[in-house]
Design goal:
9 strands, 17 helices, Rossmann fold, 34% helix, single chain, two-stranded antiparallel ribbon
Length: 454
């Protein structure tokens, strides 16, 4: 007779196929689990109670023996090139203070980067990966274009500038009355004058420019215009300007300019092979009271008449070595041999006309003569100066003269009456009337425009 009471199943060891309850198997549902637990024999405690923890209905053992020991120091380069968000592994919590590993202090080795710091630059990251000492790299040195050069340290960048006080008038009075707090600036006329002076001071390059002053009639003020033009150019430019008297007759260019020279253009031709420096050339020129150099002609008309085309070319070749602009006070003879070399070397021409009927007609015929001899290029770049500095008390309409020449050339300038010029003596630029100085500066600006091709 068999016993119908069921016998409990034998417990399998860890080596059997059924999973152990200590490996995290779920508990039995409803009351079956409780009944099975009550009928089973109590198993021996193989693990300490401190190694078990309960989380909800799950029984999860915490094996502290499996926690790896903390390293004494992080390996070299273990975070080299790692992003800023990389974290350091932390050992699980434990109630035993002796079992909790101590987090080592940040290592001073190359490549360590604290949490939350900015990423390293390309140079520092490369040095850290190589294991070298990474120097401190500034933001400018880590730029793609590299560090700045010493030329970037300019005064415009480093020095703060304040606007200059106005030149004159009520604007200047207001500036000083308010101790510099109110500065309305200069007037439009002053700004336009400064712009004109800037045009005159522009660089012309390495080539010497030749500008002859022409007139087919004497007494119209050709030498006066040459002197005014030369003084305006020399006063506003940084380079050297010279006016040369190439009149075959008795020239008066040196009489209208301050200073005296002991040599003339004819003597410079004789000594042209001995002049090898500007210091030697300055012995043949005159300069006094002005930055304009003057090369005079011979006082003897017979000797001056012997000054021909070859002599002119020899003198201008010497002057071209040391001067940027050479003005030529030409004679009245358009068929003289000197005129041939003068027109061939000319980069622009200034034609002088008087305020009378015959003087204006001869000046217009000079333009026709240039066109007939194939120099239309000079006519296009010609500047006509109507000189009435000696007096304008006639009934001639000077405006009509200017309108006539504007139909033939691009620019016309009028030199107004000036008592200082009417004296016929040495010209001092500071003694000229304001309108005369403005006309001379305007003429200089137009000449420079023609030389630069504007």
């Amino acid at each position: 007779m068999s016993d119908s009471t069921p016998k409990p199943a034998p417990r399998r060891g860890p080596s059997q196929d059924e999973p152990d309850s200590t490996q995290g198997a779920p508990a039995a549902e409803d009351g079956a689990g409780e009944e099975a637990a009550g009928s089973a024999a109590p198993e021996p405690a193989s693990e300490p109670a401190a190694a078990r923890g309960t989380l909800g209905i799950l029984s999860v053992p915490l094996d502290l023996g499996s926690v790896p020991p903390a390293p004494s120091a992080p390996p070299a380069g273990w975070l080299a090139g790692a992003p800023a968000t990389a974290s350091v592994p932390v050992a699980p919590a434990s109630d035993d203070p002796a079992a909790v590993p101590v987090q080592p202090a940040p290592s001073a080795e190359v490549g360590y980067q604290p949490r939350g710091s900015a990423p390293l630059g390309p140079e520092a990251a490369q040095a850290a990966a190589a294991g070298d000492d990474a120097p401190a790299v500034s933001e400018r040195r880590s730029r793609a274009e590299g560090p700045e050069s010493a030329t970037s340290l300019t005064s415009d960048r480093l020095v703060s500038k304040s606007p200059a006080p106005p030149v004159g008038g009520w604007r200047r009075w207001l500036y000083f009355a308010t101790f510099g707090y109110v500065n309305v600036g200069d007037s439009d006329a002053v700004r336009m004058q400064r712009a004109l002076e800037h045009r005159i001071a522009v660089r012309l390059g390495e080539k010497t420019r030749y500008v002859p002053v022409l007139s087919r009639k004497g007494g119209v003020g050709k030498t006066t215009v040459t002197t005014l033009l030369g003084m305006a150019l020399a006063d506003l430019r940084e380079d050297r300007v010279i006016a040369m008297d190439a009149n075959p007759d008795r020239g008066t260019l040196s009489d209208r300019n301050p200073g005296r020279a002991s040599h003339t253009a004819r003597q410079l031709v004789k000594d042209r092979f001995e002049v090898n420096s500007f210091a030697q050339l300055s012995n043949y020129t005159a300069r006094e009271g002005s930055r304009l150099d003057v090369l005079a002609s011979d006082a003897d008309p017979m000797v001056a008449h012997a000054f021909n085309d070859a002599d002119y070319r020899a003198v201008t070749d010497i002057l071209g070595r040391y001067y940027s602009i050479v003005l030529t006070d030409s004679g009245t003879g358009m068929v003289h041999s000197v005129m041939q070399g003068t027109l061939e070397k000319a980069d622009a021409v200034v034609l002088v006309s008087g305020g009378s009927v015959d003087e204006a007609r001869l000046a217009s015929e000079t333009l026709s003569w240039l066109e007939a001899h194939g120099r239309d290029d000079l006519v296009r770049r010609a500047i006509v100066v109507v000189n009435v500095s000696a007096g304008s008390g006639t009934r001639v309409n000077v405006d009509e003269i200017e309108d006539h020449f504007r139909t033939r050339v691009g620019h016309v300038v009028r030199i107004p009456h000036d008592r200082h010029l009417a004296e016929g003596s040495q010209i001092e630029f500071a003694k000229l009337a304001p309108a005369t100085r403005e006309a001379a500066i305007e003429l200089a600006g137009l000449v420079v425009d023609q030389l630069t091709g504007d």
